[in-house]
Specification:
Elements lengths: L1 E7 L2 H13 L5 E6 L4 E8 H13 L5
Antiparallel strand pairs: 1-3, 2-3
Organism: Phascolarctobacterium succinatutens YIT 12067
Protein name: DUF2007 domain-containing protein
Length: 64
């Protein structure tokens, strides 16, 4: 089961976050969300990794 830990507002931001989390050993999926005019991207991880990944994301929030 997957859990969304963050919603990025651009594809570029989503890819940067995915890369950072992947480099830290997490399994990451991106899901497109939003409508035609308001694209967003869900950053999803397995439930078992979500809490740890969110902590890493918060620690590195100004790098993406």
């Amino acid at each position: 089961m997957w859990k969304t830990i963050y919603i990025a507002h651009t594809e570029e931001q989503a890819q940067k976050i995915k890369q950072m989390l992947t480099e830290n050993g997490f399994l990451v999926q991106l899901k497109s969300a939003g409508g035609k005019h308001n694209k967003a991207y869900e950053i999803c991880l397995p439930v078992s990794e979500a809490e740890d990944a969110y902590e890493v994301l918060c620690e590195n929030k100004f790098q993406y």
